[in-house]
């Protein structure tokens, strides 16, 4: 009897191990299939501007600041034309060596006003995705028309945070930020962050959607909800905070 009991226990243990391994294998296959279908939601999959934003898209965009050729190749693959700007250096803390300007006649990019906006490549890649996946869909959803121009307050500016005389330098000091003031629509009307953020209508809903969508793509997004200094624009930047990788969205 004892021998039969021991043999039965061994068989049951073996069966439990086989079942556990089968379950683990099935879960692994399901996870692999999910990851293949959702590369934007996995940290190891390469960034692809043709994919909608996912859980790790923002971090991957920030990482492009360390790899200008990689950033350029992503824009090239997406069919976006641009001009690389000559490197600039002002003192010890200002300047850039990875900035570009979208081509004036680039059909995939909504034009910026004033024209000639120069921005770091990670900001450019994020702006492209933001336009395609956030701005235009939000305009169609809330306003039933497309955005034809985006108004900005500039990018590169050799200054410290909030224009102070001391302290850390702004991301603007390396063209790694852009300030968005408003949007022009197909019917000629304008949406202004200053005038429409609190008006409670469709324009305000649109502005909140594009702010919230930017938070998935930029390391820092500051709006009128942050402070009075941002009452008239969205500040968007790709600050690389290293291993902390924390993001600010307000």
UniProtKB/TrEMBL annotation:
Residues 70-250 form the Extensin-like C-terminal domain. It holds the Pfam family Extensin-like_C. This is Extensin family protein. It comes from Sphingomonas olei.
């Amino acid at each position: 009897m004892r021998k039969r009991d021991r043999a039965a226990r061994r068989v049951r243990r073996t069966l439990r191990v086989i079942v556990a391994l089968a379950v683990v294998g099935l879960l692994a296959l399901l996870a692999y299939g999910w990851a293949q279908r959702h590369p934007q939601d996995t940290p190891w999959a390469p960034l692809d501007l043709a994919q909608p934003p996912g859980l790790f898209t923002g971090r991957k965009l920030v990482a492009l600041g360390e790899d200008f050729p990689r950033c350029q190749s992503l824009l090239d693959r997406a069919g976006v034309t641009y001009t690389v700007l000559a490197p600039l250096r002002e003192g010890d803390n200002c300047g850039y060596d990875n900035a570009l300007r979208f081509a004036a006649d680039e059909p995939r990019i909504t034009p910026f006003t004033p024209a000639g906006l120069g921005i770091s490549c990670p900001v450019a890649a994020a702006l492209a995705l933001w336009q395609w996946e956030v701005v235009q869909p939000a305009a169609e959803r809330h306003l039933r028309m497309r955005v034809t121009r985006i108004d900005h307050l500039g990018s590169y500016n050799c200054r410290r945070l909030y224009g102070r005389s001391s302290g850390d330098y702004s991301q603007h000091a390396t063209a790694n930020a852009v300030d968005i003031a408003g949007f022009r629509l197909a019917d000629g009307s304008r949406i202004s962050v200053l005038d429409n953020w609190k008006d409670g209508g469709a324009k305000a809903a649109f502005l909140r959607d594009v702010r919230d969508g930017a938070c998935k793509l930029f390391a820092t997004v500051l709006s009128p909800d942050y402070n009075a200094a941002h009452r008239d624009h969205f500040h968007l930047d790709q600050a690389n905070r290293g291993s902390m990788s924390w993001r600010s969205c307000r």
